[in-house]
Amino acid sequence: MVDKLVNSEANARRIAMVESCFGSSGQPLAVPGRVLVGEGVLTKMCRKKPKTRQFYLFNDILVYGNIIINKKKYNKQHIIPLEEVKLESIEDDPRGYQHGWLIKTASKSFAVYAATPVEKGEWMAHINKCIDDLLRKSGKKAVAEHAAVWVPDGKAHVCMHCEKSQFTLINRRHHCRKCGAVVCGPCSNKRFLLPSQSSKPLRVCLRCYDVLSGAKANNLADSAHKSNNQDSSGEEDSDDDDEAQKGQDMAHDVVIYDDRKDALVPMG
Predict the structure, then answer these.
(1) Is the model's pTM score more than 0.85?
(2) CB neighbours of 61 closer than 8 A, spacing ≥ 6?
(3) Helix (H, G, I), strand (E, B), or coil: what is residue 32?
(4) Rounded to an integer, what distance in angstroms lies between the CA atom of residue 130 and that of residue 138?
(5) From CA 179, how far away is CA 84, in angstroms rounded?
(6) Are 99 and 117 a contacting pair, CB within 8 Å?
(7) What does the pLDDT look like over 61-116, one tens digit per residue?
């Protein structure tokens, strides 16, 4: 189906409509070979609280943004190359959110939730198919290491490491960029370079710092040993900041595109 939509007028119209919804705040999305596969509203688990986000699945990227006016205006556009993505299903919490999965990349990972188990299955199936097709065509291998999923602020009232420091308006929460734990300042007063996430050293907890430092020291020692042998022989999640959303009920309507009908078809 995707191959049939490449360079079609219907696909061009759909992509142009997505661009118009983001307006000047978004990046151009129309590139040769790109196809809009489907769209829908998902609940994204952000640092402070869950929030609804509009998602668009293309055959090579996943795009999402804040909903200002449903079906008309979005902002804070995020673009994720699908070649970097790995999905991981989340077990349902009888007392909390259900029908969720993790979207993991080298630079950022987070949880999303669909309205029904059918929608969850359809989303994961379509995303995974796009990923498999991309990797097969490019000959690339899937990314091996992914960023940690941050523990939401509300899940930790005290530091998850020392288990003594209680968080207040003055004693702020911090997230370790390596493991995602919520920790106090003294338990995360070290920084370490994580190239997949940033070109600058990032805040990490003391436990992760010790592990990372030890691994780095071992790697340096191994490199030095090999070199000698050769010589002798020859903070913030920007997605948490919302503009006021218009008061309205936004259903989790999820659609894929059917090239035979040039129409929207419920993904579930």
Answers:
(1) no
(2) 29, 34, 79, 80, 81, 82
(3) coil
(4) 12
(5) 19
(6) yes
(7) 999 999 999 889 999 999 999 999 999 999 998 888 999 999 999 999 999 999 99
